[in-house]
Amino acid sequence: MKANEVPQDKRDFKEGDKIHKLMYALDNDGKYTGITSAGWEAENIATKQAWDAVDEELAETAEKVKNGELSPIAYYMQKHLMEVSLLAKYVGKWQWQVKRHFKPAVFSKLGTDTLNKYAAVFNITTEDLKNFGK
Prior knowledge:
The chain is mainly alpha-helical. The chain is 51% helix and 9% strand.
């Protein structure tokens, strides 16, 4: 692809033109050069659909936390696009322990050290973690 052929369809689902993708294309001399791209329509539509699905699942999880079905750990894990295995590695726990911490009754008994580890991973305060939605 030549430099003047790099797609530049504007993303209508993000704020402004802050996000650009670096692509490599041939310049007039036939050498590869980095060109920023706003993407192309088909890619932008697919990306919007994917993020809409993520937002919908996150809203469902938030509702489950508010209803006492899940702990805030499940919400923040999903918000940060993590899997249980990754979160377990970050907090130094086994996967089954992290899954147990999704239960509100277990979450309410977690010690300060454990809550601090989760809060650090999610880049929030321990109080924000404990007082989800309040």
